[in-house]
Amino acid sequence: MGKTIAEKILAAHLVDGEMAPGQEIGLRIDQTLTQDATGTMAYLQFEAMGVDQVKTERSVAYIDHNTLQSGFENADDHKYIGTVAKKHGIYYSKAGNGICHQVHLERFGAPGKTLIGSDSHTPTGGGIGMLAFGAGGLDVAVAMGGGAYYIPMPKMVRVNLKGKLKPWVSAKDIILEVLRQMTVKGGVGKIIEYAGEGVATLSVPERATITNMGAELGATTSVFPSDEVTKAFLEAQGRGDVWVPLASDPDAAYDEELSVDLDALQPLAAKPHMPDNVEAVASIGGIKVNQVCIGSCTNSSYYDMMKVAAILKGKRVHPDVSLTISPGSMQVFNMLAKNGALSDIISAGARILECACGPCIGMGQSPESAGVSLRTFNRNFEGRSGTQDAKIYLVSPETAAASAIAGVLTDPCTLGGMPEIEMPAHFDVNDDMIIKPAANPAEVEVVRGPNIKPFPLGEALAASYTGKVVLKTEDNITTDHILPAGAKLLPYRSNIPHYSNYCFINVDPKFPERCRENGGGVIIGGANYGQGSSREHAALVPLYLGVKAVLAKSFARIHKANLVNSGILPLTFADPADYDKVSLNDVISLPHVLEEIRNGGQVTVTAGGRTFKADCDISDRQRAALLAGGTLNYAKAQAK
Ligand code: MIC
Ligand code: SF4
Q: What number of H helices and E strands is found in the chain?
């Protein structure tokens, strides 16, 4: 039988396991990336592994999240990452060079290769036919050391793109439509492949917008074929030599198929507070808008920015609107400057921010109280913008620019003739902000400022456990709920003791205190617990606070892997009805946990005086890690 694109890349990188649905497979990883908010932990863990030089074909450390530097903390983090990268064979993309996913696509990504990144939007690389996964920092550290990356063998989904987009409708609307159909849980355990006649009509940046937001579907990753469009993009980046063609076989089998009729699609928006809460812009109507933010790893390419510049040219941003623009990379920014489009943007009254994540991760530009903000970003979780009662709508760059001028949510189709944007034959390549690793690594001293604190390690699993239920949550808890980011907290990503004071702060501010009083405990979660960002802090901080297990209805993939890596038990209710029987502050015990985990059976739970069963759906490799108290402990024990 024929193979899908993903199956071909998986088969070429398989080092462990069998490619049967649900079975755990180990993959050889060609490239890794980190960003600064997750990078410090990843490199501390890499150092703890004692590997001298990275064993990947290419590893890159980006600085793009914490670029505010309002105290010494972020600057210390940058210095640590810069020096550790130089010493261990890792390329270092300086602050200002751009957002990791955009720069990686431009300068390093290659079709047919595997990439893991300590950021959930790493699947952006699928836009040029890479198999790219978001992972926890420890998984990235292991891959840099030459170890395999493990995932449960995903199911295959084909999304057929029929026809061609109408003017003013864009890639963002395609992925919002897929989100509407599949929901934020719909992609869990699946790889989404795009196919059909519509594929050839989409440029690489448009494809990357779509694979980027596959993260919001909960998908393992998303991928486009590598074709003539991919080749032209790579050639325009001066990297035509890395191109290889890649397509699924005609008789490849998919577990699921869905279609998007591009001709029928209209501009869409994800309404507050979930990316799948999608409705047509026209039907939401002309709500008043206070802020518009254009940028992020979803929509900050040259192509997107040129469309925005063309819409703004000769117009004025509405007096009641604050419009910010963050180009995705130094390359994009420079090209806009050179061809005059930047002047069109500035003249219209936009505020130009640096090439970084910026408002997307709450690094400034929090909207006014109860404000409405339209963003070309990928996440609109409650509070993520830094303003708890703000209402965030996710839209295309076209809708964003049209609305910034009108002052109300505006369907760009009302603007008349659409400007045609050509993809350039040559991008303006300048890699001066990417620092190469040292020729003499021994001479490099790794600089650790006072903000760089050690990370917590789990303890080997004991025969039994008794503690308290320290939190009970609803469904769809995101890692932003578990540990918020933003300008005030991102500086503490390397300082777990301090960061721990903010764990679940917007869900239950008493959580850290309760953990301290009870010496930790157990968290009860709903469905899709831990969706969103890949931040392993969402596991490491609860570990630091003494959390021993999370008992939920279901987990998001990356977070579950992060829990196992840190030695926290990811348990699911065997009967979801038992969720209702457990309450906050109940005494909870796992009387035979060691024996049950060791034997791979169900785990007996006693809570609030009742006894029921939980599942621990993990691989043998993960079992060994949990017994040892986390992956690093396990790896160290193996090395002895
Ligand atoms: C995000 O978009 O939430 C982030 C910040 O990029 C995260 C990583 C992090 O929490 O540092 C992600 O998506 O993985
Ligand atoms: Fe940065 Fe936002 Fe993309 Fe995360 S989603 S990598 S914060 S731009």
A: 22, 27
Q: What are residue 192's DSSP bridge partners? A: 157, 222
Ligand 2: centre distance to CA 628 (Å): 33
- Does residue 31 have its Cβ closer than 6 Å to ligand 1? no
Residue nearest to atom 3 of ligand 2 (CA): 297
Q: What digits encode the pLDDT tens for the residues 280-320?
A: 999 999 999 999 999 999 999 999 999 999 999 999 999 99
Q: Please report which residue ranges of 407-536 form alpha helices under DSSP H.
A: 479-482, 486-489, 496-499, 511-518
Ligand 1 centroid, distance to 505 Cα (angstroms):
18
State pLDDT tens for residues 159-213.
999 999 999 999 999 999 999 999 999 999 999 999 999 999 999 999 999 999 9
For every residue of 527-576, DSSP letters joined together read TTBTBS---THHHHHHHHTTEEEEEES-B-HHHHHHHHHHT-EEEEESSG
411: Cβ below 6 Å to ligand 2? no
How far is residue 239's CA from residue 228's CA, in Å, rounded to a whole number? 14
How much is the pTM? 0.96
* Mutational pocket test of ligand 2: of 121, 300, 324, the residue with most ligand atoms within 8 Å of the beta carbon: 121
The pair of three-digit structure tokens given for residue 609, joined into one six-digit string = 């005086």
Q: Is the CB of 483 under 6 A from ligand 1?
A: no
